Structure formats: structure tokens, C-alpha cells
Amino acid sequence: MAGAPRGGAEMQFLRMALAFQRAGVTQSVAMRPHSELMAPLRDAGVTLAPLPFGGRLDFRTPQRLRREIAAFKPDVVLSYMQRASAAVPPGDFLHLGRLGGYYDLKYFRRCDALVVNTPDLLEHCVAAGWPRERVQVISNFVTLRDAAPLPRADLATPAAAPLLFAMGRLHPNKAFDSLLQALALLPDAHLWLAGEGPERPTLERLAADLGLAERVRFLGWQQDPWPYLAAADVFVVPSRHEPLGNVVLEGWALGRPLVAAASQGPRWLIEDGKDGLLVPVDDAAAMAAAIRRLLQDPRLAAALAARGRARAAADFNEAAVVERYLSLFKTLRAAEA
Fold first, then answer.
1. Architecture of 8-141+317-336 per CATH?
2. Is the pTM of this model over 0.85?
């Protein structure tokens, strides 16, 4: 994995490696030496190979990765995303590339097969020329959670105010600007926004321009966002572009009622009116109306939250996802024999 110190893909990579370790898989993890990610792996007894995974002029990583693979002698090399997949050398192993987005597939040309986390991504790969039988859909997983709500007074938020929560990288794809515009149509509501990224100054200016500065709390990156989420009345996923939407699964896992824009992943995950509410992408008025509906109908909000949590437990649990990966490894290795 050649990822950043934090982010949704990085957290899912960490969870997957820890899940493989709990399942008794013998593994060695090659990754950038980010302490926030490496510490839990090291504590779990995972063998680590820190590598720089630099740019074009990084000649050390392919050489060191080749040596690590030769020493470890894996049956399967699972590479996350573009840079790591391109760095894997040819060898006597099954190379499985994992995509979590609509990437340029030239970076995966040395892979024997691909894993994607939504059917739409499968179609993206097939349209780019990959044989359908060499692309497998295996979604992410979450663990059901319970968390004590953070006291609203800790963030100078009125106890009786309707409270919204959102989280993600502060990037245009996440459409937090649209969420702020929706908040402007909900005069009593407050918003806690967890995340960091290049759009933060723009979003802070927009909040001020909309007269929302007193009703929005920018929380920065939160390693443990669950107390903030547990305190909220409604969890909002406003993304205009979201290949899967792991945050949807996280909201379900904590049992929070959810409103999401109908971008790629959320519209696949969510059954509108059953385990969440979907609204058109970039429609602030529709988002505000859906949020208002849940705030005014606690019974509906509770029913959506309960069904979402049940979906997370039944369809997106660790044991099922790990078993699908292990079964795929065996099937592909047998086909090569």
C-alpha cells in the first residue's frame, strides 16, 4: 500500500491486514512508514516492510520490493491502488490488484486479476478491456460499534439543537460545500464536520459567507470519530463522487439515521426509504428537506438506523469479507496450477 498517513482507503487497508492476521493468514505488509498505520499492525504481530513508494525517480522501492517478495515467497501479492500495483515485479505468485476508485488501469497491467468493491467499478474495468471473469467484486467491511456521545457542550453546541455530522477528506468530490448550503436552509441545525484536506479554507469561507460560522464546527482529522457521530441526530454523506462510500457503512455500524447524495457507491448501498434517504447529487434543497424529514420524524429515523445496522451486520461483516478473499485466492491459484 503506497498511501497517505490517513484516509478512507488507508483505514480500510489497515482493517483488512488486521483481519487477515486474526484469520491466521501468514502475511508481510509492504507500506510507507506512517506511524499511525504501522503501530496497530506491529502491535498485532504483522510482519512489516517499510518502503518509500516514491515517484518516478524512486528506483529503490521496486528493488527492495523485489527482495522482500523473494525472501517471503508469497502465494499471493495483493496490491492496493495504483502506485503499489505498478511497483510489484513479475514473479511466481498470483498478483491481485485492488481498486477502490475509477483509476487508469495502465497501472494494473501486470496484475493477474482485480478486486473491486462495487459492481460499477467492475463495469469500469470491463469497459477498459479486462475480462469479466478476472474481476471480482468484494466490498469493504465494518465492525458494529457502540460509542458514548460526546457532550455537545464540549463543542459549544446547544443541547437541544438538531445536530448533523459528516466526515471525510475535505475535497471537492465530497461536496461539503453542498452540505453547507443545505445547512443554510435549516436555521436551527448545527453541523460537526470531521476531516482535513485542501478544501478546508474554502469551506470555512463559505460557512462564514452563509452566516453559518456559529453553527459549524470543523473538527479536523479524527482517529476516533465515533463519539462525535454518536452525538448526532443525522449522519450526512453529501458526496458528488463516491466509488463506494465506506462512511455509509460506518454510519450504519453505529446505528445512525443517514441521508446521502445518490453518487455511485451510496446509490448501490442504500435502499431509499429503507436503510437511508437518498437525494440527488448537488441538490442542497433536497438534502435539507430529507434532513428535516428525519428530524421531524424520530420513528422513521430510528427505523432507518436499525435497518442500516442490520445491513452492516449481515452483508458487510469481517468474517464474510475475509472468507471471500481467501476463497478467491484458492480459486485463482487452482486455476493457475
1. 3-Layer(aba) Sandwich (3.40)
2. yes
